[in-house]
Amino acid sequence: MGMQPSLAREPDAFRALMREHNQALFRTARAILRDDAEAEEAVQEAWMQAYKGLENFRGDSKISTWLIRIVANEALGRLRRKRRTAEVIPMSIDDSPDEFARDNTPDETHGAAPEVQALRGEVRRLIETRIDSLPDQFRAVFVLRAVEELSVEETAAALGIPEATVRTRFFRARSLLRESFSREMDLAVENAFQFLGERCDRITAAVMARIAAAG
Predict the structure, then answer these.
(1) In total, how many domains does the chain have?
(2) Which of 76, 82, 118, 139 has the fewest CB neighbours in a 10 Å radius?
(3) What residue numbers bound the domain in which 196 lies?
(4) ∠3-29-168 over CA atoms, to 5°?
(5) Interatomic CA distance for residues 109 and 106, integer angstroms
(6) Is pLDDT of 3 > 70?
(7) How many helices (H) does the chain have, and how many strands (E)?
(8) Is the distance from CB of 141 to CB of 169 less than 8 angstroms?
(9) Phi and psi of 186, rounded to 5°?
C-alpha cells in the first residue's frame, strides 16, 4: 500500500492504514519496552509523527518499514529515558511479563473448545515469557523476523542496523530460545505424572477398604 500525502486529509484512509499496521507497530514497541501500556503510548506517538511526516514521505522504502522505523525510534527513546530516570530514582520493577499479543485482530482460538483455548493460552504465555527474557538487542530483531516475518533487509532498515547484525542477532536469539525451551521441557518431563501424597493415600485407602469388605 502506497503512502500518499492526501491521506492527511482523508481520515478514513488514515484510519485504514492504522488498522493495517497497528499489530506490527505494537509488537515492535512491545519487544523493545516489554510493557503493554507503554508500548501502546509509543505506537500512538509514532502515528502522530507519521501523520505529521506524510508530506515528506516519498516512497523510497516500504510503508511498513518506514512506520516500524518511527515506532522503534520512539520506543528506544522511551527506553533510554526510563533508564536515565531509574539511575536517579530507584524504582520497583515487576519482572513478570505482560501479555505480548494484545492487538485488534480476532483471537485465533475463537470457536475452539475451552480446553483447547486454555492449552493454546498457556503455550502462548510460555512463548511470550521466553521472548521477553531475551536480551534487549536480540528481542526486537527476533520479533520482526520471526513474528512479523520481515526480511533481513526490511528488519535492518526498520531498526537502523547492518544486515549482518540482524542475521547474527536472530541466530543468537533462536539459540537462546531453544536452550530455554529445552530446559523447560526437561523440567516438565521430570515432573510429569507426579505421584502425589494425596493420590497415594487415596489408592491405599481404597485397596484397604476392598480388602476389609472381602474379608
Answers:
(1) 1
(2) 118
(3) 5-214
(4) 95
(5) 9
(6) no
(7) 8, 0
(8) yes
(9) -60, -45
